[in-house]
Design a protein that fits this description.
This protein is α+β, with helices and mostly antiparallel strands. 35% of the residues lie in helices and 12% in strands.
């Protein structure tokens, strides 16, 4: 008999309670102990990308079977979470679609790849060394042979993480519904239930009939019906499926090999298991998705004339307050739209009990951003970070967002200016220098982050009280200038002037501080501060 684990009824999700105690739950147990002193607080998976994937799994399952009709029902379930028995009753109708093994359909797997290419299980993990690195002995940081077997729980996490973030995998191996390694935005709550529920979209904001989910519904769960896989198949669009398929998309054709499973220790979580999975099979030409907008990701337009929305992806700079523009508020200049869950959050949490629940650090709700920085099929890094959700009253929202956008753009201009002036100080031909000086940018954002959020808090308060923000903008300009000079002096080695070209270094610092330089005029322009030369006229 083929081993079966059911992802609805069985315990497989690793969690941490408020007191630090770890355990494993089934999805229907997410509210266990919620009214007591020790509720479930967070996911506690063996890899950070698994943490992000499992939160999306729970949001997806609640969105699929527990979609609230409106804000009133959403708030009711927030303040009075369903019991474990109530959740289990809601989840049971879809449980047959969530078998990891068995003779019938398997969760996010394709039974038609039985004769596909055989791979070792480590290839299911994003970031493990590829064949080319192994053949050239260039697997320096993530070594080959470190993962040889996974327990069914960790194999499930790896499978869902790959399908959710799938990078390019060669000819016919499709990317995820949001492309390789998309940025995900998750509103955080003090408990796991409150985190998950904050990111579930009301029925009134969804383009679907709202009918109850069933296990055999292949429009939601693609593995429960014909996959339409193949090179000649047209892309699957939102018109071809239910909106819930955004959470259950299946771009890769994968089949875990339970027949070769052996007893042993899982190389990720360390658990002993009788069914340690060591291999899987795969074939190309999985489902290709087009035209989808995932509710948990920001999107942008490639150019102003384009009608297509593209998912936002992380860049080598990582997650800083530069991401606040496009993650917390729309970036009108670049056409970036914040994720649907974040866009709806202020209206469903006006001042009151719901807003108090989500007020964390500094009395503000927080947003968790995470994702891979991908280059084709190669992940350069996995980033995650949190930031406050700061807003002004609806009457002042436009002014606040314009100010916040200007502060972010001014910081970006200032960071680039510092980096360029350091090059001018160190090199005869700075434009020809190819070295990576991104550490200067990272240091710049880190040094100014606290002042940025303090400025936003002051601006929100000032606008809400009928005040003006010119002082806040000038204070931010002073912060950028002071930080820029400090970092320039450190990285240009100007204090060791005998060791470098003194004239070049001095001229570079003058360029940095010249109020009439192109960069500094752009910085003031972003902040709405008049040009000094024009002001005197």
């Amino acid at each position: 008999m083929i081993f079966i684990i059911n992802l609805i009824t069985d315990r497989w999700i690793p969690v941490r309670r408020r007191n630090g105690e770890r355990g494993t739950i089934a999805p229907w147990q997410i509210t266990d102990g919620h009214e007591g002193d020790n509720p479930i607080g967070t996911i506690a998976a063996p890899r950070p990308d698994f943490d992000g994937a499992l939160v999306q799994f729970l949001v997806g399952i609640c969105q699929t079977v527990l979609t609230p009709e409106d804000d009133e029902e959403w708030e009711e379930l927030l303040l009075s979470p369903p019991s474990g028995d109530e959740l289990r009753a809601k989840l049971e109708p879809v449980a047959p679609a969530f078998n990891l093994g068995g003779d019938g359909p398997r969760f996010m797997q394709d039974l038609d790849v039985e004769d596909g290419k055989d791979w070792t299980i480590d290839n299911l993990l994003i970031g493990m060394p590829e064949e080319t690195k192994i053949s050239k002995n260039t697997d320096w940081f993530v070594k080959r042979g470190t993962v040889q077997g996974l327990c069914p729980k960790c194999a499930t996490m790896a499978l869902f993480t790959l399908q959710t973030n799938a990078p390019k995998g060669g000819r016919g191996h499709m990317t995820s519904i949001r492309g390789g390694g998309p940025m995900t935005s998750i509103i955080l709550g003090p408990t796991l239930w409150q985190t998950v529920w904050a990111n579930v979209i009301n029925q009134e904001h969804r383009d679907c009939d709202g009918g109850p989910a069933t296990a055999g519904d292949s429009r939601r769960f693609p593995w429960m019906g014909p996959l339409r896989a193949g090179r000649t198949e047209r892309p699957r669009t939102p018109q071809d499926a239910h909106p819930d398929q955004a959470f259950w998309a299946m771009p890769r054709r994968i089949l875990l090999n339970f027949e070769s499973a052996l007893p042993g220790t899982c190389d990720l979580c360390g658990a002993e298991d009788d069914h340690r999975i060591i291999r899987f099979r795969t074939k190309p030409n999985g489902v290709k998705y087009a035209g989808w907008v995932h509710p948990l990701s920001p999107y942008y337009r490639k150019d102003k004339s384009s009608t297509d929305l593209l998912p936002l992806h992380l860049q080598p700079d990582g997650i800083t307050y530069q991401n606040w523009l496009g993650a917390v508020i729309n970036d009108k200049e670049k056409g970036t739209k914040i994720s649907q869950n974040v866009a709806l959050f202020p209206s469903r949490t006006p001042p009151g009990k719901a807003r108090q629940i989500y007020s964390g650090h500094g009395g503000r709700p927080r947003l968790w951003l995470f994702g891979y920085d991908m280059v084709d099929k190669t992940p350069r890094c996995y980033y995650q970070g949190t930031m406050p959700i700061i807003t002004a009253g609806e009457e002042y929202a436009a002014s606040f967002e314009d100010l916040a956008a200007g502060m972010v753009r001014a910081a970006g201009e200032a960071a680039n200016n510092v980096r360029w002036c350091v090059k001018v100080a160190l090199f005869d031909k700075p434009s020809d220098v190819k070295g990576d000086l991104s550490v200067i940018t990272a240091r710049f954002y880190q040094a100014t982050e606290e002042a940025f959020y303090r400025g936003l808090e002051d601006a929100a308060s000032a606008l809400s009280n009928g005040g003006e923000t010119s002082g806040i903008r000038r204070q931010w300009l002073e912060t950028l200038n002071d930080t820029g000079k400090q970092l320039f002096d450190e990285y240009s080695q100007i204090d060791f002037i005998d060791a470098i070209d003194a004239r070049r270094a001095v001229n570079a610092r003058r360029l940095l501080t010249n109020p009439f330089s192109k960069a500094n005029r752009a910085i003031r322009g972003h902040l709405g501060i008049p040009d000094e030369k024009k002001r005197k006229m």
